[in-house]
Design goal:
334 residues, mainly beta, 36% strand
Length: 334
């Protein structure tokens, strides 16, 4: 049950905003907060406006706000003294701390449920899809220069200011169809920030473990299913997100959200028998594993695995070795 306690001690006077937003002001009106702002831009443009709040000076942001009305949401035109009204106690139990807001205005090119954008680095087009409050690429990233690997050998991707990728079995057609395969450090562009652009296009970033879970829990409530000795989660989330073709063993999905996970296969680095270390490709049409930006120790990162013989998914720490190479799905900055 929500309490009726509502006390804002002090507002911060400076709000963190996108470049299109200026002259923000806000006041408490009973149990609501009135926020005013100017939205800059050409008269022909439209924006989607979203609002977040923090009570710890920006360490944690909450939102976007759901119980807010007025000049917020999609199809917002540029203008002055635009007004929003936040019904606080519908959103939170109470608000009794220092409060700050962040407003972002997103150009209408990413409004609607889906679309296409161009990666300006190489001119490649990518489909995108909106699922819940998130915007995801609807196909795997395919950027960079191919590194060819001979059988029973390996060549690591390097921090050399050139994006490098593996193509399954060294075939460009596999990259064109399924996307490139990247070692974790390459995927992160050799940065250790947990929320990081990595090698994603500008305005996008490598999703964190939390962002992957937000997607999964939106598609299916948190349910755990055990299959054999490995732990698989979810009863149908994998089926709902997988593509309708290309999977072996009748493992095709229903692709209900147009997320279109294709079975791209993986690249494993075998380091168990030095100095006879080597890499090998495995699982085309059978498995896809995605990187997150979330580290798990010095040698591993959180990965999310989808399989032809499962309708669920797996968070696989064992296979999250940073020297393996997996697929990338970028998520739009909010």
């Amino acid at each position: 049950m929500k309490t009726n306690i509502f006390l804002i001690l002090t507002f911060f006077s400076t709000l963190s905003t996108a470049q299109q937003v200026s002259n923000i002001d806000f006041t408490q009106e009973g149990k609501t907060i009135k926020i005013t702002y100017d939205l800059l831009g050409e008269s022909s443009q439209t924006y989607e406006v979203k609002v977040w709040y923090t009570t710890d000076e920006g360490q944690n942001w909450h939102g976007p706000l759901q119980y807010i009305s007025g000049d917020v949401g999609i199809n917002q035109k540029p203008g002055y003294h635009k007004t929003m009204l936040w019904d606080v106690l519908k959103e939170v139990d109470k608000l009794t701390a220092y409060v700050n807001f962040r407003i972002k205005a997103i150009l209408s090119s990413y409004l609607g449920d889906s679309g296409i954008f161009i990666d300006k680095r190489d001119g490649q087009e990518y489909k995108w899809v909106r699922i819940g409050t998130q915007i995801w690429m609807a196909e795997n990233l395919n950027v960079g220069r191919i590194i060819e690997i001979k059988k029973h050998s390996y060549i690591h991707q390097k921090n050399n200011n050139v994006i490098e990728k593996y193509c399954y079995k060294n075939k460009i057609k596999n990259c064109n169809k399924y996307g490139g395969l990247y070692q974790w450090n390459e995927a992160m562009n050799y940065s250790l920030k947990n929320t990081n652009q990595g090698i994603c296009p500008k305005g996008w970033h490598l999703p964190s473990k939390k962002e992957w879970l937000n997607l999964i829990y939106y598609v299916e409530e948190k349910t755990i299913l055990y299959e054999g000795e490995h732990k698989w989660k979810g009863l149908k989330v994998g089926k709902k997100l997988k593509s309708i073709n290309n999977w072996l063993y009748k493992g095709n999905g229903s692709d209900e959200y147009d997320f279109n996970i294709k079975p791209s296969g993986d690249y494993y680095f075998n380091s168990h028998f030095p100095p006879n270390e080597y890499g090998f490709y495995v699982g085309l049409n059978f498995i896809t594993t995605f990187w997150s930006s979330t580290e798990i120790g010095l040698e591993s990162a959180a990965v999310f695995e989808f399989h032809a013989r499962s309708n669920g998914y797996r968070e696989d720490e064992y296979h999250g070795k940073k020297l393996h190479a997996y697929s990338i799905r970028c998520i739009k900055d909010q």
